[in-house]
Design goal:
The two termini are about 25 Å apart. The longest helix has 14 residues. The protein is an alpha/beta fold and about 350 residues long. It has six helices and 17 strands. Helix 5 packs across helix 6.
Amino acid sequence: MKTSDFYYDLPKELIAQTPLEPRDSSRLLVLGRESGNIEHKHFHDIIDYLNPGDLLVCNDSRVLPARIFGIKDETGARVEFLLLKQISGNKWETLCKPGKKARAGAKFIFGDGIMTATVVEVKDDGNRIVEFECEDNFFSALDRIGQMPLPPYITEELKDKERYQTVYSHELGSAAAPTAGLHFTNELMEKIKAKGINIAYVTLHVGLGTFRPVKVDDVTKHKMHSEHYEIPEETARLINETKKNGKRVIAVGTTSCRTLESVASFYGEIKPCDGFTDIFIYPGYEFKVLDGLITNFHLPESTLIMLVSAFAGYDNIMNAYKVAVEEKYRFFSFGDAMFIL
């Protein structure tokens, strides 16, 4: 199985640059997991495919406004930092551009002095360990000066930062949005609950590794990035009850999917826990929890198109993507959705 097997041709104009309003007005391609049948709907129609007793599992991680711009203390040179991972307290692993400006010991000023930073260490991979200082709470200061770390294929400015958050986002810590959830409105969530469909939450903080390309020809040789997850007690209980009752567990997004399948693979069951996962799901993987998946359209040759191919079947997915291109669906983070069931 080669990485090139997961390539498809995507016209640049189909890459969504801005989110639609309202959120649930985006299009929805409904794909039969066994049959490969395709239906064309809108996202608010998803309620018609959900049955009482089914369970939606959503990722409630919230995106950090992790891109900050500042100046070097001594020279006034402009720099950009991207927060990747909290090490401890106000100490973070970051990307820095231009890197040559950020040697160990260098100091930087952000937001006219709202925040300052000192480079503590330059790692072998070029990332910087940086210690920040601010009078205010760090995350409050970050909210004031930070910008959303939009994927590189989105070139238009995002006017409303909340449009890169799900309406149910709660736990701050992601470097990118769990984008399948961006289609839900509060009103749609209430309609879903009123129909007798349960909603539960996991947390998986999305790392920038989610955009890292697969650079090996042999898919099985790719090494996944590690991300932190948590499954609360109530969520574990609802998942186990749903399976026991013969109803469906439907993951909202590949991050929720990876969380559930990681825990089931490691423990042999779903239970309250937290940890780190680097699970890589590609065709041949046997799913242990999922009965359905709501997801966006993913980049060619990415680990995410490999995951959905594992769930729905390679031929079904590659055909669905071909149809989506022909029907001019909108792709990637701000694009349309697919429901595999």
